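Q: Trace token order:
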Amino acid sequence: MFKRAVGILIIGAALMLPLGAAASNYQYKGAKKVSPFLITKGLPHYTMIIKKRWDDPKLALTPKQKAELLKVRKATLGSITSLKPKIAKLRKKIVKAAMSGAAPESLSADVAKLAKLKAEATRTHLKCIYDTRQILTPSQLEYINSTMRRKRK
């Protein structure tokens, strides 16, 4: 009985190996996402925060503000959307090479490219923050910032 159970487990494991290898190329829902930014904590993602509160009467965005914020969002997301796949691909290449035993010196150029891409994404994020702060009034900014503080608690 015990030998049969072990045999079934071994066969099951052998059948699952190819599935596991294929699945490792995909990112599962709930898997930790890798940030395209150099600064991963502390900077607000205003476009997402404002999107959730677009029609919030407490935020009270004017039609002019909405138009300006949409331009900022479009520019920001356009830039980040084009950078993210490049960052992910290069990161994956570096990780794979490092785990295969590549010498650090051989990865230097790719690491520099990755740093440059992440720096560009971070500059885009900083510009988004700056531009958004120029559009919102001090009271609107305080409201947005207070909602972020409440979430962190």
